Every structure is written in C-alpha cells, then in structure tokens.
Amino acid sequence: MSEFFNKMMYGDGDKKDFSPKDLPRTRAQVYKRLIRTQWGKLLVANWWTLLFCLPLLAWNMLCLSYGARFDLTTADGTQAYIRFLLTMCYPLSVCFGVVAFVGFAGIAYTVRNMSWGVPCATTRAFFKGVRSSWAQFAVVGLVTSLLCCLFDFALVALSFSVFDAVQKVLLYAFATFAVLLLCCGLVFMLNLCSTYKMSLFTAVKNSFLLAVKYFWKTLGVLCITVLPLVVLCIVGSVWMWLVVYLLLAVFGFVHTAEVWHLFTNSVFDNHINRQNYPDFYRKGLAPIDVTGSGKSGDIGEKSNDDRSGNDGNEASEPTEVK
C-alpha cells in the first residue's frame, strides 16, 4: 500500500526525468500533444473567441433568414434587397467583423504560448494577447470585412448581370483567386501581428510575399481548416449554417488557430527566426543540438511572453522576406 501512495505522490521512479529530447520533433506531434494534454485550455480559448465572434455570427444568421424574404425575380424586390445589403447588412457586418478580429488576437497569443510550451493561464493569456495586439487586429479586421462585403456584393451584382456564360466564368474565377490570395495572406498576417513587433504595412507586405511563395502549401492548410466550413455555408440552408456555428463553438476556432500557427511558425523559422530571433527558432520542438547534460545548443531558453529578443529588449522589426 505504501508503494501505491509513493507512486501517486512522487511518480514512477523507473521513468527517466524529462529532458529536451522528450519534446515533440514535428509540428504534427505538437498538435497531438496539445489535443492530448491541453484540451481543456484549448476549449476555454475557443469559447472566449466565440464570445467575440458571436455578434457577427448572429447577425449573419439574421441577415440570411431576412434576406430570403425578398423576391429577387422582380425589379422592386431586387432593389429592396440591394438597399438592405448596403444600408443594414454590410455596415453592421463590418463593425462586428472588427470585434471578431480583436478576439483573434487573444486566441493567436494563447495558442502560440501553448505551442511553445510556455506556462499560461488561458483566460489571462487570452486577454493579454487582446491588449497587446488589438489595434493591428482591428485594422486587419476592418479591411478584411470591407473586402468580404465587396466580394459578396460583386457576386450579387454578377448574378443580376447580363454577361454571357464565358464572361461570368472568368469573373467568378478572378474573384475566387482574389479571395484565396486574401485568405492565404491572412494566415501569415495574423501570426505576424501577434508574434513580432512590426508596422502593419510591413506585416501586410511580408504576409502576401509569403502567401505567394507558399501558395499551394497555404492552400492546403486552408483546406484542412476552413474549406469544410465554407462548403457547408455554400449550401445556403439555415440548418447548415447552424451546423457550422456548432462546429465553431465546439472546437473550430482553436483548431484553425493552432494549425495556422504551427504552419506559419515553420515558415518563420526559415525566413525570420533562424538569424534574427534564435529564441523563437524551433520553439516548442526538440532542439536539433542536444548535449549530454540536457541543455539545448543554439536554442535560447528565455521566455518569449513579451516578444523579447536576445538582449531582453522588445523585438525590433524583422527583416523583409526574401
């Protein structure tokens, strides 16, 4: 009986002490470890993000149900529907979109710390991320929401246009590519704004350079995280939208944030962290060079909660992506 209580209090004496060699060696292993050991914290972060996104989700559902009442087969019904979009739907969607992106600042910061193995209280880390990056995320949310509304209005106008079939296909293809490029840029932009201290212009420029350079890989990441939800939304049924909202409420936001962080961090390691921020290089992964004493070789050991560089000062602006 005494051995049983000793194991409960002190653990199994036959097991080796934790060392840097025991850290995950791939980003996929980091994801599995978080799901296995930190799922409770991930759910809390997801629910806080849902709280920020709830106005946008509720408003979209209301617009979807209300917009179905318009008779688009008549000229008066079409004009009334367009007035509804321009005067009510789009303005409030932009405002709620900004609020949602402010919430993304919190989940990006929380997921980053958890992936890097930095101890953190979920709620405190979430709102610390909101306080540190809310301005940049709000601007990104404003621009993104405006572009999404513009894209939606273009699709509505295109459906009422007199273009022939070939012209419509070309216009739809161009609009689809523009949206994909915007989404690919957002994958990098959100994590750049959360991880590094840089101007918004530099973040936008580097994000789209990386989006073009890693277009197909980023597209694959979007297929893993966003495409299933988009397909359900395209169906157009209110019930399908409810299914999407349920998936987001359960695990959708944190799953997307985690996959985006792990992917972009692997890219940042090659273009930014290896030379400029060695403390960030392979953070959360097993060091490449591990000595017999268990100390890491080239990997810094300092905490990066405050986005600090090697000298402990606030990180300067990263170099441009080449």
Give a written overview of the molecule.
- With 322 residues, this protein is an all-alpha fold.
- It has one domain.
- It is built from ten helices and no strands.
- It is globular.
- It starts with a helix and ends in a 46-residue tail after the last helix.
- The C terminus is likely disordered.
Helix content: over 70%
> Residue ranges: pLDDT <50 for 5 or more in a row?
290-322
Please count the helical segments: 10
What kind of sheet is the major sheet? Answer: none
Helix and strand sequence: HHHHHHHHHH
Shape: globular
Q: Write down the domain tally.
A: 1
Radius of gyration: 23 Å
Mean pLDDT: 79
Structural class: mainly alpha
Distance between the termini: 63 Å
Which percent range describes the beta-strand content?
under 5%
List keywords for this structure.
single chain
Give a nutshell description of this structure.
With 322 residues, this protein is mostly helical.
What's the layout of helices and strands?
Blueprint: H1 2-10, H2 27-37, H3 39-67, H4 75-115, H5 122-159, H6 165-195, H7 200-213, H8 215-225, H9 227-234, H10 238-276
